[in-house]
Design brief:
This protein is of the alpha/beta class. It contains six helices and 22 strands. Strand 1 and strand 2 form a beta hairpin.
Length: 375
């Protein structure tokens, strides 16, 4: 299986090969189990990489591998150059928004449906800034806050602008290249606050289901029609008392703090014990959903917006074809407002919403507010 982490679901039971296990670091008299990501170790801090070796573009940031170049995270304990994975990938992100936005109902319970029998489960983690998507999210609370600030400025100065920075509202794109054709794949996706997962399939690849965990929004494009999509957003996870562990809890900063005495041995032991219990509880829940532990199977680089699921392409004929977001429909789960368009479109839309709400709040008399009247 060329080094892949093979995780197969058979009638609800998972049999397979997990290539990585926990690792232990020692403080004086303190053992620290550390759940590792399923990725190559860092290169020790090099910023500029060797164009012949994608692993030299991976650096360590507080114990988390970080991408510092055009590389994809893979299941093979190694990085891969994006150009060796996706055919026609656009590093700047989408040039236009998706064709349409289709809402999906969130999960009603604190669990997911089991993966389809025979599917290979892949656990991906999005960390850090993603690619442009021309798709935006805002909450009622954000709209209300901007409106209140607008009215305050209007009352104090007699005039007010509505500053809007679209990139702070934009969903962050992550590309998944699926080269796996030997087995169907079930994607488990740990999202950031505003992650948009863009799936690209090699001919013959099949995604049997998607389970998205975390974030204010769960958004995905590029799936064949009818693919089951389920999500537990961050607020649902809180209600369910589920605390995802998506990166090593014990990191070099913590270890250094203990070494120099900023954190005492007793405090460290208590903290480590709490972290161990957090990891244990999440692994129990995660394994109950997908048949595999979470902390020893996760794949992902911080600021690495490209993933490869399946074998490494050996030549250009095996590259996964890239399809731009503008050619796709977006499925999303969110209790907030999702919209699409250019940055200028969003800026105008959001400003219009603020002014409309301000007009209602002021009883239709914005001029009176500007002249010092109450609201």
């Amino acid at each position: 299986m060329d080094g892949r982490v093979l995780l197969l679901v058979f009638a609800g039971l998972v049999g397979g090969i997990v290539l990585l296990g926990g690792r232990t670091f020692d403080l004086p008299d303190v053992g620290i189990p550390l759940g590792q990501s399923g990725l190559v170790a860092s290169t020790g801090g090099a910023v500029q990489g060797d164009r012949s070796d994608p692993n030299t573009f991976v650096v360590d940031k507080s114990g988390v591998p970080q991408a510092r170049g055009p590389i994809a995270a893979t299941e093979h304990l190694t990085a891969a150059f994006v150009g060796k994975v996706l055919d026609g990938h656009r590093r700047s992100g989408a040039t236009a928004p998706p064709i349409a936005l289709i809402p999906v109902e969130p999960q009603q319970f604190c669990r997911f449906s089991p993966p389809e029998q025979g599917s290979r489960v892949v656990n991906l983690v999005a960390m850090g800034r993603g690619l442009d998507t021309k798709t935006y999210i805002y909450s009622d609370a954000q709209l209300q806050e901007r409106t209140e600030n607008f009215l305050k400025d209007l009352q104090s100065d007699g005039r007010a602008e509505v500053p809007v920075y679209p990139n702070s509202f934009e969903l962050e794109g992550v590309d998944i290249a699926v080269s796996e054709t030997e087995y169907p794949v079930h994607l488990v996706l740990h999202s950031g606050a505003k992650t948009l997962w863009n799936v690209h399939l090699r001919p013959g690849a099949r995604v049997t289901g998607v389970s998205m965990i975390g974030g204010r929004v769960a958004a995905i494009s590029g799936l064949p029609s009818g693919t089951p999509v389920q999500a537990l957003l961050k607020e649902q996870l809180v209600d369910c008392k589920i605390s995802p562990v998506t990166r090593p809890l014990v990191n070099p900063v913590f270890l250094s703090s203990v070494k120099i005495g900023v954190i005492s041995k007793e405090e460290a032991e208590e903290t480590i014990s709490n972290w161990q219990e957090m990891e244990r509880r999440y692994n129990v829940w995660f394994k109950g959903q997908f048949g595999i532990p979470a902390t020893t199977t996760r794949v992902g680089y911080e600021n690495g917006p490209v993933f490869l699921v399946g074998p490494l392409p050996t030549d250009e004929t095996e590259l996964v074809p890239f399809r731009d977001l503008q050619e796709k429909t977006l499925l999303y789960v969110s209790g907030e407002t999702i919209t699409r368009g250019t940055a200028a479109d969003f800026r105008d839309e959001f400003r219009g919403k603020v002014r409309a709400l301000a007009m209602r709040v002021s009883g239709g008399n914005l001029q009176g507010v500007a002249l010092g009247g109450g609201n």
